[in-house]
Amino acid sequence: MTNESIQIDWKKLHGNRFGGAKALVTGGAGFIGSHLSEALVRLGCQVVVLDDLSGGSKQNLASFGPVEFVEGSILDRDLLARCVKGSRFVFHQAALGSVPRSVEQPRLYNDVNTTGTLNVLEAAREARVHRVMFAASSSAYGENAVPWIENLPPLPRSPYAATKLAGEGLLRAYAASYGSNGGIDTASLRYFNIFGPRQNANSAYAAVIAAFAKALLAGKRSVIYGDGEQSRDFTFVANAVHANLLAAGREKRIDGEVINVGCGARISVNQLAQKMATALGRPDLAAIHEAERAGDIKHSFADMKRATEMLGYKPIVGLETGLEQTMAWYRDVLT
After folding, report:
1. What are residue 260's phi and psi, to 5 degrees?
2. Which residues are identified as catalytic?
3. d(CA 246, CA 36)
4. Is 60 exceeded by the pLDDT of residue 257?
5. What's the pLDDT score for residue 204?
6. Which residues are within 8 A (CB) of 314 and not within 5 positions of it... i.e. 6 or more apart?
7. Domain segments of the chain: what residues?
8. What is the spatial distance between Cα 226 and Cα 72, in angstroms, rounded to a whole number?
9. Residue 80 to residues 20, 25, 38, 72, 149, Cα–Cα distance (Å)
10. Which of 17, 174, 232, 295 would bridge with 158, disulfide CB 3.0–4.6 Å?
11. Which CATH code for domain 19-192+237-263+297-316?
């Protein structure tokens, strides 16, 4: 099974709203960014991808086209200004991910994720971009009781979460300070454990589904940090793309609001490991447990009311279907 099996009929969902428009996707050669770029291309949008390839790959853009690919960093303000020129939308996906790595390298995370977001917003404001969509993170909720509603106080437990929260503050400030008379509008989409094809399994900081897939396909046992009873609202990547497109296409202003992007369901990491081992034909490979990692949270679960009311969002791919397609992709590329 190849990437072709995961195609969504984006035209049916979003019509001609993006036809002829220009969009900049920062981090567009990465996991989520490449899926977003692909959907925009299929909707007739002129897409510029800016990516430094620290976490992405040009191969992620190879199965569709055309896009204008620019290799570079969101820390390069002159390059950003050139890339964003003439754009109606900016989808800001570029960031350093991984909670554990942020604990090890907090200054680097602040430079890229916080200052980088400020750079993107300044470039967008000067280019008179209509709306900026920001890849925010559910990690901002920390140890709040679930389900997580957007008006809960943020309780970041890692430098990564803190930088994403800072980004949200910048987006809200820019909409308030520069949004009058048709000025810039912004939206912060808090992603909940996005997974799917093209998610890198070869990093030491790989996300849990990618890491489990790599281990199981190599005939090894998955590693769970902690007791495995922590739960997550795992969200297939097409749902994140759909939410971005709904936010971009909304007629009313969003004014920097924070909006959850999840499925409104959750399973434990232990259950996930068992489900994946069975799906890959290795139920004999029981997971092993290691010590909890600094900055990790116990439970994650999205309340979807605001996303439904503001964007008309509801998940278009459920966990079971998403896992099936993702496992098929990893089987294709890792074996």
Report:
1. -70, 140
2. 160
3. 12
4. yes
5. 76
6. 304, 308
7. 19-192+237-263+297-316
8. 37
9. 21, 11, 21, 9, 34
10. 295
11. 3.40.50.720
